[in-house]
Structure formats: structure tokens, C-alpha cells
From TrEMBL:
SUPFAM superfamilies, per the entry: NAD(P)-binding Rossmann-fold domains
NAD-dependent epimerase/dehydratase domain residues: 7-235
UniProt name for this protein: Nucleoside-diphosphate-sugar epimerase
Pfam families noted in UniProt: Epimerase
InterPro entries referenced in this protein's UniProt entry, alphabetically: Epimerase_deHydtase (IPR001509), Lipid_A_modif_metabolic_enz (IPR050177), NAD(P)-bd_dom_sf (IPR036291)
Gene3D superfamilies associated with the record: NAD(P)-binding Rossmann-like Domain (3.40.50.720)
Natural source organism: Candidatus Symbiobacter mobilis CR
Amino acid sequence: MTTGMTVLVTGANGWIGQALCARLRREGVDVRAAIRKEGAGTRTGVETGVETRYIIVGDIGADTDWSPALAGVDTVVHLAARVHQMRETAPDPLAAYRQTNVDATRKLVRDAARCGVRRFVFLSSVKVMGECSPVGQPFREADMPQPQDHYGRSKFEAETALWQEAGAMEAVVLRPPLVYGPGVRANFAALLRAVRQGWPLPVGSVDARRSLVALDNLVDALCVAMRHPRAAGEVFFVSDGQDLSVADLVRMLAQAMHRAPRIVPVPVELLHCAGWCAGKAAAVERLCSPLQVDSTKLRTMLGWIPPLSLEEGLRQTVEGTE
């Protein structure tokens, strides 16, 4: 059974994109999956028989022609982005971020508006707000963005391009914090390995709280943003709604693994000193600083309720991540 809705998802072979496309197929949505390379062809959702058409667009930028992918599309969900690089190799990192995150977004918005797309949902990031929130004051949508790194700056510039180019097309922006779930990578995956292997973690004195959002919760929020009439023209923070210190997160992960957590109460000042000596001062500063968002607007205006509790989301993450 189909819904009659046609959605273009960019970044469709990424971690979030794959989860969103699977959800849309289960709901009977006709999915156009824009990818840069590989995986071309047509696949069919086993649950519904609804096809996902994979469209190769190459490396995206200001000259990408999105028109063939947009024909007959009702809604665009723009996930494709240049994310944080663990080992940066670009000679001009900011230019590289802008090419993918700003120039490509501006061109996609222009083409979508010209092709008659009804709604454009853009996945931004909490990083547009900066690296830390004031103690006890989670970021809200009315707060002024103050991005501190190339990635955050490029995502904020992409948001600005969306508002400038959307015209009569409905635009919606979601800003998630750290996303976790089965198959998570990077720092969260490293934390999972450390807890699983019983490494002592020197975070017992770090009480800064951080917001998280489970992958399935983010996908659900994206689906609500695609459809809810009141979402048009709005920016929303999205989170699980239960902020944690790193020590609390370690305890909950250990509980899901049926292990005893090994948490060492190293004074924060010593952590900063060690970070400076190891050339990781910025990373330690982020670890010891709060980064919280308030998702009240999403919950009250759109009636969004996270499908997964934090406990269930972490349990699924532990069970689904090697």
C-alpha cells in the first residue's frame, strides 16, 4: 500500500539516511534516494513492496543538477553533508565544508523550489549554536547561533541559504545534538568499546550535562517535520529529553551490558592539564562543558513524543553495535 507521497532523501546511503529510507518504505512512501556513488539501481522494500529509486548525483556542490531527481517530488529531506573529519586532509577545510554543506544546499533549494517541491526539511546541527551551552541553560530556538568551528559555521550558512532561497516552498530545520543508535561510529563507538572492555574512565568528576537523541527518535522527528502543517517555516531542536553527564552515560551503558562501570573521579583541573599536555585541550574542554538543547517547542507545537526512552535507545545501541 502506498501513500501517494514522493520524497527525495539526500545522503540516503548514510547512517541516518538508511534508517529514514527504511522507515519511509515501511509507511508506503515512494522514496528517491540521492547518493554520491555506489549502490545504484532500484531496491524494493520487503515489508511494503514500495520501491526505492537510487539516483547517483556525484560529489555535490554549486553546479549539481538536481532536476532529474526532483521530478514529481513532494518533499525533500536533505541529509547529505560533509561531517567532522577525524583526519582533515583538505588544503582549505572551510572551503570544503562550504562546497558540500552550503553551496550544494543552496543549489538544491533553488532547484526544489523551481520544480514545485512542497516542503524542504533540512537536518542541521546543534553545532550552529557553538561548542557548549551556558550552565543550566539549554539552547532554545530563539537563541542566537554562534558556531565555533568550520562544520558548525557551514551548517548555519546552509540554514541561511535555505531561508533565502525557499520562496513559497515550506522549509523546516531540525537541529539534533549527538545522535546514537545501532551502528554508531566515531567517539560514541569508542566509548562503547571502552565500557565493554572494562577500561577505567576518568570522568567521575565531570558533571557537565549533554543532550542526546536516539537514531529512531531523530527519524521519527524527521517524519513529523515532513508532514505536520505547523512545522512549516520553523526551526526545532530535537533530543530524547533526558540530559546526562558522561559518567551517567557510562553507568547506563554498563548497565545495558550487564557490567560494572569503571569510573575514576579525576579532578577536572587534572583532566584539562592532561589534555593540554597531550595536545587534546579542545577535546577535553568539550568533554567538560555542557551542551544541552531544549526540545519543548517540537513537543508542544507538533505534539512530538520520542518513540524510544533513553534507556531503550541505549539498550538497542549496545545490542546493535560491535
